[in-house]
Structure formats: structure tokens, C-alpha cells
Design a protein that fits this description.
The chain is an alpha+beta fold. The protein folds into 3 domains: 87 residues, Immunoglobulin-like; 101 residues, Sandwich (Immunoglobulin-like), CATH 2.60.40; 151 residues, L,D-transpeptidase catalytic domain-like, CATH 2.40.440. The chain is 18% helix and 36% strand. A 5-stranded mixed beta sheet has the order 21-20-19-27-22, with no helix packed on it. Helix 1 packs parallel to helix 2. It starts with a helix and ends with a helix.
Amino acid sequence: MEKRVMTNSKRRKRLMAASALLGGVLVLSACSGGGDKAGGSDGGDSSSQAKVDEAAAKKTSEAQIKITPKDGSNNASINNGTTVTVAKGSLTSVTMKTASGTAVAGQISADKKSWKPLNRLERATTYKIAAEAADSEGRTAHENASFTTVSPANSFIGNFTPEDGSTVGVGMPVSINFDKAITDKAAVQKGITVSSSSGQEVVGHWFNANRLDFRPEKYWTGGSTVTLKLDLDGVQGASGVYGVQQKTVTFKIGRNQVSVVDAKAKTMQITQDGKVVKTIPISAGSPENTTYEGQMVISEKFKETRMDGSTVGFTNDDGKGEYDIKDVPHAMRLSSSGTFIHGNYWGAKSIFGSVNTSHGCVGLSDTKGANDPNTPAAWFFTHSLIGDVVVVKNTGDKTIAPDNGLNGWNLDWAAWKAGSAA
């Protein structure tokens, strides 16, 4: 019995010892786990990663390149909307090519902070830009972008007259014809300014959705300079249709020449700067084909041109024109509908100053071939500018429509200003 008791006691002691040891291990394991997580082997890995990140950061350039338009852009500007800039560094290389590989010339600025193409871009073209820059430590950065410029279908342009650098008469308006119908006239007109060195107020007038003319209240001041600025790049003229023009045009106003055609007296009196310089006998439209009345502006000049009656509605029963003259001399256009002031070599010399015989034009005595400088028509042609005013009166016809040619002067100032969208 005593031996059995001793045996049980030893067994209990062994179990207690084992339990204590196991408890210690469990406690130690629990503490070790928490300790490792907080600052043991995992903490050592994070420190190593931080060192790796720090080393990588030291190798990364601080230069920040920005390409405009952004990558993937559509309907991008073809003018000066394309740029490459860099912050915290200097540009070292920029290349720009079309999708087909054609290089685009460009230039890095003197401070090496920006780049832009030297010429206007093409419409509906995809371009790719690759840029490289270096920071103050010489570490390089790269950026790439691809974009597509606005297509003809999604853009509009304005064809304007007069031409840059030209000298024109005092009646010459700035006339802009857009190749797309403009629905947001106010936005487009806001992007166009016309000013004169004379200080005259200049106002735009919309004749329709495609045509916008500018003029002052009275004729331009002789000798002044007129400036047209088109700042239409990116301007939305209609839904999904944007402007692409950014251009400045200047032209000079010549001497003030106004010629008055009196169909009743059958004469034309030419004044320059308010003084009569010549009176020429004329033959205006016949009683059956009277000439429009009103203020008309010479819009084109031709030493010789063809005039076919069928193109302006004068036809015979066989459908051919009532006249077809292939060499009309010294012709100057006064309307879009076919009104001219021109030389006439086929009529008798006696008609000029005595009878109106034309189909609506104003005729001056001339010779075939347009080579005789001594004829009235040759003199008037030589002394006339695009933009000179020809006032026609006493014909019995109606006043010419203001949009028939460059003839907006036939609207009074209040009516002209009423057509402005500004």
C-alpha cells in the first residue's frame, strides 16, 4: 500500500511539472508571437523594404513632364495648343511624328522648360510625342502621348476678304464666309475683332448662318489701317463643330474714291477725297433691264472676262444666252448676281451719254483687246481699287440687296447694328 501511494505521488508531481512547463511554453509562444509581429523578424523586413524604396527614390528623376493635349485626345487644336513643358528639370529631347512616321519640326525653348511645333498641324491627323527630361542630378524622365487633331467634319473656317497686306477702297467691308453653318453666333463673333487706326467704331452684321460682315457707320477713313483678328481656335460654332483659325490680318485704306452713276443723266462723276476728278459718259441698263440702285462696292477686277447671258437668266427660246461675249474689257464686279461696270467695244460710240442699252450693267466706251489706255473704261479701271464705291441712282429699279455682293452700306446704321450677335 505504501509503495502504491508513493507511486501516485510521484505521478502527480510529474504531471504538475509537465503542466507548468507546457503553460510556460504556451505563454512564451503567445508573447513571442506578439513580440515578433511588433518588432521581430517582420519589423526587420519592413526596414529593409524602406531602404529599398529609399534607394529607388534616389534613382527616380524629379523632372515632371506634361504633354498637351493629353494622351488619347480627339478634336485637338491644329494651332498652338500643342506644348511640352517640364517642372523640376530641363527638356533634353522631344520628337513629334504623325502616325505614319512623318516628323514634325519643333523647338525647345532657350530655358529648356518648354517645346512646341514650329508650324500649324494638319486636320484629322494622329500625332505621337515622345519627350525626355533630366533633373538637377541628371536623372532622366520620359513621357509619351498620342492625340488626333480636329477633323474637317468637326471644324469650321472663315474665308475672309480683303487679303492681308492689300490696299482697298473706303467701301471695303471685312466679309467672312464660314464653311459650316454657325448656330452660336455670339461665341464666334466674340472671337473676331476688327479695328481701325482711325478709331472708328466697327460692328459685325450676320446676313445668315454662314456670313458675317464688319464695317463702320460711314466709309473707312482714307489712309487708315484696319486690323482683323481671328481668335477662333477651339470656339464651338455649332454642336460638335469647332473653329481652328488663329490669325491676324491688316490692310490699308487708300484714297477716298466714290463714283456716282446717274442713269438719267447717263454720266458717272468720279470724286477723290471729295473733289471731282472726272466725269465719264455711260450707258446703263435699258428700260426693260434696269440697273439696281444703291451703294455698290467693287469686289473683283478683270482686264478681260467672259459674260454669258445664260448664267444670269438672260436666255433665248433655244436656251442659249441672249449674249455671250468672251472678251469683255475692263470689267469690275458690283454684285454677286452679275452687275458689272465694264468697257463696251461692241456698242456704237454714240450711245454713251445718250441712251441706256445694257442688260443691267453700267457700260463705258472701250476698244476690243483692252489695250488702249486712252478709253474712258481703261482710265476708270486703272484708277479704281477693290473696295471703291460706285453709287447708282435714277434707274427706276429697286435698291440692291445688302448681301448681294459687298453692299451692306445699303443698310442704315441702326439696322446694321441690329444684325450683330455681340
